[in-house]
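Cross-posted from the bioinformatics board.
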Amino acid sequence: MALFSGTATVVPRNLALTSSAKLCVVRSSSPRFLSYLGKAGFGNRVALSLSTVRAESSACLSGSGSGSGSGSFHGLCYVVGDNIDTDQIIPAEYLTLVPSKPDEYEKLGSYAMVGLPASYANRFIQPGHTKTNYSILIAGANFGCGSSREHAPVALGASGVSAVVAHSYARIFFRNSVATGEVYPLESQLRLCEECTTGDVVTIELGLNRFINHTTGKEYLLKPIGDAGPVIEAGGIFAYARKTGMIPSR
Amino acid sequence: MASSLLSPSFTSFLRTKKDLSFSALSSQRCPKGVPRRIRCAVAAPQRQPSTTGSVRTAMTMTEKILARASEKAQLSPGDNVWVNIDILMTHDVCGPGSIGIFKREFGEDAKVWDREKVVIIPDHYIFTSDERANRNVDILRDFCHEQNIKYFYDIKDLSNFKVNPDYKGVCHVALAQEGHCRPGEVLLGTDSHTCTAGAFGQFATGIGNTDAGFVLGTGKLLLKVPPTLRFVLDGEMPDYLLSKDLILQIIGEISVAGATYKAMEFVGTTVESLTMEERMTLCNMVVEAGGKNGVVPADSTTFKYLEGKTSMPYEPVYSDQQARFLSEYRFDVSKLEPVVAKPHSPDNRALARECKDVKIDRVYIGSCTGGKTEDFLAAAKVFLASGKTVKVPTFLVPATQKVWMDLYSIPVPGSGGKTCSQIFEEAGCDTPASPSCGACLGGPKDTYARMNEPKVCVSTTNRNFPGRMGHKEGQIYLASPYTAAASALTGYVTDPREFLQ
């Protein structure tokens, strides 16, 4: 799990911003918002509010300093099962889209999870929309198995997903998530895919390794993201390497 | 034995691993059998301990390769090290994105770290009218010209692949055929099946665009040393089994996540008897068990394959006798039966004969896993033995231009001089298509043999997740070329022993 451990000392300086604004975390979670979540009725209205908060949050990291991984995420969750492979995350016919091209990056996002079979009744992205209403994806074991396509974490990130909480990951997907900084690949102690239902309102508190399902009122422990956290928070390996002085800033 | 049929001159290499090392040593001194440039890993006193094998703590061959590439004397599983990369491969699906990241991060005028170590192989979406797919090959071409990349296997005339002498086809097979896979080296590729090259006793694994962009600029990557699972395959391989049966057997045993983050080392008398192409099949699918890399110790079979393919010196390494393996699995191959992986997971193993009531709509023979020359020779052997015609559409997609040419030139043993293509034609198969990744991963809608409807397919490819070959409700049974050909003849999933015994 500690993918980048022991290789660099953190000298937070010259935070390099990446092209993707959505990498941002809600820093020091807003008490106002949390209390609102605590007593709200969690309908579609809340989902709208949530996306507004997400949009607001996307500017917040630009002023922040070190990568302590203490941010939090709030949103609706989308729940999938075991062994979701990259073809289900982003089918091969869309791999002609080049993630490093901004317009094609956005398009990739609009196809996120479109490869899920029809047994998934709720669509991940509503017809006519390009972004998902579900900012947190919950999965079983071996999420992201299959091909090495970086399009997979990119599509999730571009669709508006902040974090995936899976019981375990396939290696390359985990690595690509960290390298791109597109999504936090978090691991749960329990199989949260059996504890949550699509549409539940959830909160992830990174610093406390805590996962809260507000809909059911239950809390769970996550495995620490470790040294990968600051890399993702910085916006991927290049941004992190610049931030920490491993490679020159531009 | 399957392998001896396919390569009649081959004699089994049934020795202990210690003997293997001595074999490499003696062949260095007496360069009759093995080219002189192979420098032995055992007796090279001027080299670092990690390359000589005289180490303080025993290491596996994966650990040794990474130790040498990171200039360390000693490594243990879990260590994170900066590894010098010998070859970086990319293709038309992930190349443009990797190039985009390279330019964004290193600058528009940046140069790759070594123009002779970057190998670019268009292979995924070639024979399509999809404009964006065509554009992606153009991006590769522009980049290769700009950077003066030495190994770019270009295709310009899509109407006839044969007029493109540089074009190869499926990258993992082309890498081997063009001599880019060498023992002891580190090969990274923007494709999960890059692990195929582990068949040559090297460390080979798949990476994403961002990591590839980093490698393009620096020639290095931070890698975590994996622990090794050891698979000991002993016993004579029955003549109805192929390497595909072995790897499906193993994945069924350890599951699609059984080797996550781990190396899979294949040894034993069966592995020693396998041809290079069969070893490639074995290593190709380690990623389907979640493996980081697969590896087969290099031996005389490896050296013989490499003769005339590369002029680069290489140094094989071997696991120490006392090396620590996370666990060891033993298989008596003589007792195994033909298997398939049922929908929708490569570890959903069943005996082929248990699925004899599964009616199928089509058969697909192709890809980096099952589209090599020997895979087609195996299928032809079944068609020849049966003397019958296929009952369902049977699609043949040679992995590379070389494989395609082999189908039209190599006589199938026991056929009185017929080629595979003649046998396929007599059996009623589709004409072998232009070499590429084809419908293994679906691809653009106009891809040859893509599953555009919810059909049931027996395929020699590597994945059967929902939607893999096109249609989400399609059902894919992964099988060996023997089983695929036998199934084509009956229209049901069929154990090849029905025709081979």
